[in-house]
Specification:
Number of helices: 6
Number of strands: 13
Strand order of the largest sheet: 1-5-6-8-9-10-12-13
Low-confidence stretches: 1-38, 288-297
Radius of gyration: 41 Å
Structural class: alpha+beta
Helix content: 25-40%
Shape: rod-shaped
Largest sheet: 8 strands, antiparallel, barrel
Mean pLDDT: 79
């Protein structure tokens, strides 16, 4: 009657010993599969921003009322009727096309015998994951109203003001087939509230000139997909080797511990059985001898 619990104990210990290594191996494989990282952002290595700012503003500056002009510096260019920036840096995600492109260069407008003076410099194109975009720039400005009133002390300088919105829904960014160029053409723009507060003259939402942008990007190479596929195939086959050295070590340790526990349990059970048998033998002999010596009546 007592052998049944012992047998059951042995069976349970053996099952646990066999199950242990499998669980460890599965955990190691799961950790290995979850270690893949998402693609890193691409570095912007070149490009060009083409923008006329606003045709009516240029016409006012160069007209007979303001009798003004403009000059470019720090790498900015002008080819009638468009300004250009080509010194650029930044990063962008190749999947979502979110990121920023920071250009260097300035355009200096003057008019009304120097009373009107505006500098637009260092435009940044900011692209959000939701597909919206903004052009920011450094703005040093005296509004036309203040200039005509002679209030030159009201000039203000703002760093990276959110100047215009980019309607990327109408003219979206496009990544070429080889993944090295991102571009958008004739993107509609409109001045923001912050742009109006800094620049004046044009109410929020007023259309400015569209922009063209081309960005050359350099993306890090993806992980070797062939090796990843081979590893996945190997782990799915029963006879395949473990995916990593760490998982192999864990598997052997599990087997050894299971076998050691099983041997220990069996040894204890054998010892208990032998002890019980040894204890039972004298008693049985004593009973037999007593029956033989009983006198006849």
């Amino acid at each position: 009657m007592r052998r049944t619990p012992a047998s059951t104990t042995v069976a349970l210990v053996a099952a646990l010993a066999l199950a242990g290594p499998s669980s460890a191996a599965l955990a190691a494989e799961s950790e290995s599969e979850s270690s893949a990282e998402s693609a890193s952002a691409c570095e912007i290595t070149g490009g060009q921003l083409i923008w006329g700012i606003k045709e009516s503003f240029r016409a006012y500056i160069s007209g007979t009322i303001a009798n003004g002009t403009w000059e470019v510096s720090d790498g900015a260019t002008y080819e009638t009727p468009l300004f250009g920036w080509s010194d650029v840096s930044g990063v962008i995600d190749p999947e979502t096309l979110a990121g920023s492109a920071e250009f260097t260069g300035a355009v200096h407008f003057t008019g009304h015998d120097g009373l009107l003076e505006t500098v637009m410099a260092n435009p940044t194109l900011a692209f959000a994951e939701d597909g919206t975009g903004t052009l920011l720039l450094d703005l040093s400005n005296l509004t036309m109203d203040d200039a005509l009133a002679g209030d030159t002390d009201k000039a203000q300088t703002i760093t990276q003001a959110s100047f215009i919105t980019l309607d990327l829904a109408s003219a979206p960014l496009m990544l070429d087939a080889d993944g090295t160029t991102i571009s958008a053409t004739a993107v509609p723009t409109a001045i923001t509230q912050a742009g109006f507060d800094a620049f004046g003259t044009y109410e929020t939402g007023t259309a400015f000139d569209p922009i063209d942008v081309t960005l050359t990007v350099e993306c890090p190479e993806d992980e070797d997909e062939d090796e990843v596929d081979e590893t996945a195939a190997a782990t799915s086959e029963p006879t395949a080797a473990p995916a990593t050295a760490d998982s192999a070590d864990m598997s052997w340790i599990g087997w050894l511990v299971g076998i050691a526990v099983l041997i220990a349990v069996i040894a204890v059970i054998v010892w208990l059985v032998l002890r019980r048998r040894a204890a039972a033998t004298p008693a049985e002999g004593s009973d037999a001898g007593g029956d033989a010596e009983e006198p006849a009546r």
